[in-house]
Amino acid sequence: MRLKSIELSGFKSFAKKTELKFDSAITAIVGPNGSGKSNIAESFRFVLGEQSMKSMRGRRGEDMIWNGSSVAPRAGRASVRLVLDNADRALSLDFDEVAFERTVARDGINEYRLNGSPVRLRDIAEHLAHANIGASGHHIISQGEADRILSASSRDRREMIEDALGLTAFLYKREDAEKKLEKAAENIREVEALRRELSPHLKFLTGQIKKIEEGEALRARLAEAYAEYFTREQAYLTAEGKRLAGESEAPAAEGRELEHRIARLKAELGKKGRGDAASHELVRLEKESTAAREKRESLTRDIGRLEGELAARERLSRAASARSIPAHEAASFAEELAKALEGALELDLQALRELLRSLAHRAREFAARVAHTAESPEKDSARDLAARKESLERELAEARAAEERAASSIAELRRSIESEKDANRDTERELFAAMGRRGELEALLSALSSRRELLAREEALFKEMVGEAAALLGREALQYETHTARNEKGEALADADLAKEARAEQDERRRKIERMKIKFEETGESNAGEIIKEHRETVERDEFLARELADLAASAESLRSLIADLTKTLEERFVKGIDTITKQFDAFFKMMFGGGEAKLSVVKERTRRATAMPEDEETPEEEAAEEYEEGIEISVSLPHKRVKGLHMLSGGERALTSIALIFAMSQVNPPPSLILDETDAALDEANSRRYGDMIETLAKKSQLILITHNRETMSRAGTLYGVTMGTGGVSRLLSVQFEEALAVAK
Length: 746
Ligand code: ATP
Fold this sequence. Notes:
14 strands; 63% helix; alpha/beta; 6-stranded antiparallel beta sheet; 17 helices; binds adenosine-5'-triphosphate; 746 residues
C-alpha cells in the first residue's frame, strides 16, 4: 500500500483546496516557521480519525476549520481526503484506490467517508489497523513529540509498540470478542433470571400435572372397580332373578291347586242347609210327639175319670144298697192317695202338677160320692159311660200309635243327622289341612316376594350406580359388559361362578368404590386440559430457554477460547516483537551514539481493566492476569558516560534515543507511511548524516513524509514541497527543486 495524495480544504491555514502528491519514497515539506507545515502533518492525524483536538493543536473541532481573513472568508467546514493505492490489497477492501475522507463542520457535524460512502470511525480504524496504520499515531511524529514515546507511561508505550507490531487488529478482535462475551454473559444472566422466574410456576404446574396424572390413575382404577362390580352385580341379579322365579313356580302351582281344593271343600260343607231342614223336621216331629203324648195322657186321664165314674156308680149302686161307703173303700182311697204322693217325690215339676191336679180331681170325686151317698142316687147310665170309655180307649190307642210313630221318626231323623255330622267332620279336617298348607305356602310366597322386592331394590341401586358411574366417568363406565371378572389368580370367571359369591364381597366392593369416588372427586381437576396445555407451553419455554442458555454458554465458551487464542497470539507476537525491537533499538542506538546500550523490558503494572469474564468462572490465575498488565520500560546507557536512565539524557540525546526507538519499531513491522515533523531539528551535522542514512534505510519499507528544515534530510527526498504563507494567513503549496527548497526553508 502506498500514499498517493492528500487533499486539504478549509483545513486550518489551508483555506483553499490544496493537494499533495506523494510520488517518491521520501517527500520533504519545507517552509518557514508558521507557514502551515505542521498543519499538513495534522491533516494526516485528522483524516485517520484522531479524536484528540489537543494533539491537533486545537480545543474544538471548529479549530480545524479555516478561520477566515482579509483575503478569504472563513470556511463552514474543513475536510481532508487521503488517497491510498490499494493495488496490493493491504487494506481489506476490494478497490485499487481507497479514499478516506473526514469532514467537520461548524455546527458540530463530523463525518467519515470511505470512497465517498459514509462510514463509522470504527470502520476506518479497523481498516487502518489491518494495514498497520494504527490509531496510536506511532507513524506520525509531531513536532517536538519525537520523545513522546520516551515520556509516555510504560502502559501507553506498550500500546504504541503493540500498534507498531501490528497487534492492534488482534486487539480490536479481542476487544470485540470481549464485548460479545460480556453481552453473552449479560444474556446468560437474563435468560437465567427468566428461568428462575419461570421455575416456581413450572414447579406449580408440574405439581398440578402430577395431581392430574394421579387423578387419571385413580379414574382408571375406579373404572376398573366399577366394571368389576357391575359385571358381578349383573351376573348376580340375573341369577337371583332366575332362581326366585324358579323357586316360586312350584309353590304358586300348589297354591292354585289348594285354592281349588279349598273352594271345593267349602262348597261341600256349604250343603249343611240340608242339616237345617232336618232339624226343623226334628222340631216338628218332637212337637208332634209331644202333642201325641199330651193327647194320650189326657185320654188316659179321661179314661181314668170314666173308669172312676163307672166304679163310683157301681159303689153307688151298692151303697144304694148299703147307703154307705164301705170302710175298705175309704182305706183304698187313702192308700191310693198316699201311694200317689210318695210317687210324686220322683216326679218332675210338670208331672207333679199333673199329679196334683189329678189328686185334687180324685179328692173332689170322692167328696161328691160321699155327698151323693148321703143325699141322691146317680142319674147317668153306666152304659153311656162304658160307651164313652170305649171311644176314648180307641182314641188313646191311636194317640199311642201316633206317639210311637213320632218317636221312631225322631230316632230315625237323629240317626241321619248324626251320620251327616260325621261326614262333615272329615271334609272339615281336609279343609283345615288345606288351609294350613295354604298358610304355609303364603308365608313361603311372601318370603319369596320380599326377596323379589329386595332384588328389585338391588336392581334399582345397580341402575343408580351405573348412572352415577356414567356421570362421573363418562361413556366408558357403561362398557362394563365387555369386562371380564377375574379371581385373585387372574383367571376369568363364568357368570355361574360369579353368582356363587357371598354378597358381603360385593358390599365390600361397593364400599371401596364409594371411598375411591370420594377421593376421585377430591382430586378432580376441572380445567385439566388448560393446565396440561399451559404446562406443555411452560416446559417448552423452559426448554427453549435452556437451549438458549446452552447456545449462549457455547458461544461464550468459544468466545473465551477465541479470546484466549488471541491473547496467546498477542502474547507470542508481543514477546517476539519486543525481542526484535529491542535488538533493532540497540543497533540503532549504537549507530547513533557510536556505542552504548539500549533495551526494552516488559514490566508488570497494576491495571483496573474491566473484564468481560463472568466473575464466577474466573480462575485465580486469570484473576492475577487481570490485575496486572504488562508495560514497557526503556533503559539506556551511553558510551563513555555513566548515564543510565532516560531522565539523565540531554535534549539531543533524548531526540536520538527516541529516533532510534521509532526507527527500530518501524523496522519490525514497517508502517506504509511514516510522517516525521522536524524530528531532526536537534541534530548536529554528523548526526544529521546518520539520520539521513537511517531514513534511506527506512524508506525501503515505508513511505516517508518529512517536515524539515534540515538540509541533509532535504537532500535525501525525492519530492520536495515548499509551504509559504502570504498575506491573509493562507498557506500555499508549491513543488520545488532542492535548491529552491533550501531557499524556501529559510
Ligand atoms: P514552524 O516551522 O515554526 O513549526 P510551521 O510551518 O509548522 O511553523 P504551522 O504550525 O503548521 O507552521 O502553522 C501554524 C499557522 O497556521 C499559524 O500561522 C496559525 O495561525 C495558522 N492556523 C492554525 N489554525 C488556523 C485556522 N483555523 N485558520 C487559519 N489559520 C490557522
